[in-house]
Hints:
The chain is α/β, with parallel strands linked by helices. It contains 11 helices and 13 strands. The structure holds S-adenosylmethionine.
Amino acid sequence: NSDYNEDSTPVRWFRINTIKVKAESVLKKDPFFKNLKQVHTIEDLFNCLGNIYHDEYIPNLFGINPREKITNTNVYKSGKIILQDRSSCFPAYILNPKADEDVIIDACAAPGNKTSHLAMLIDNKTNGIIAFEKNEKRGEILKKMINKAGAKDCVNVKIGDFTRCKKNDYQNVTKMIIDPSCSGSGIFRRAVDDMILQKNNIEEELSLKKKIDIGRIEKLSSFQFSIVKFGLLFPNVKKVVYSTCSIHPEENEQVVIDLLNDFEIKSKNWRLCSKDEVIPQWKRRGWKKEFIKKGYSIQDSEDLAAGCVRSLPKLDGGIGFFAASFIRE
Ligand code: SAM
């Protein structure tokens, strides 16, 4: 599972796959889960076996201690539960697709965590999702994951470059998730994590990393801008969620700002969703200073940054992550 890394999270998150099973039947009947004690904060999971936490943000998402042998369970082996970091569940939840209204493109889909989450949210509607994946090998993994999740009829997998598809062939598409390749700086190695936690100075650590990696980050950020722009120019798409597992502002807020200032995108009436529309209870939001640096007023910077969601590795109970959502009425 791409999201999960022993070293990067103090909590192992899993989603009950309601395509295959009802949450209650896992929690109350499965021999592994029925004896777990429900706790009310993720801190109760740290260094403590035998507990389960029901997430307050994402429906059907639960956390347990990473040392629990969850991958030995039958519900895991049969795709009734899916391991997926909490913040990686944000994009599909923010997109809020409706089975009776939406057809969705998942533009960068493998290994398919967000795709299978989307399928679940639209009740596994037949032909509800088109999932692009450029890399052939990863595309095969995506297909396996979709099968395992029971979403084969819902997801139409296309192996190929999303930015080379013909937009006009997708007149029926209304919503989109774009989760492109990124630096992965939200998925830290343990040593770096501990250093950050000790110093509690993520910006210092980031500027150090950036000095080493600036060329790569610039390339990624221009790729991220162009792939999201491509998505925003689809004829009938009304909502697009952009996400990364990076904590660098160049791949996050700065991509959002460049998109908001792009002439073609402006002419299509896109705006950034406000805090109220993007998991408002979640406390960690985008970085205001990135907007101020680009000349936005203090108030606009506050509002735009609040429209973005961030999570920090470990400190927020999982990987580092960023998500922002664009909408047009
Ligand atoms: N959304 C996935 C999930 O939640 O499981 C993770 C996606 S991963 C961050 C990015 C993926 O996008 C990689 O598998 C990469 O091969 C694919 N990719 C990169 N550029 C692409 C493009 N132009 N068209 C389609 N897929 C692309």
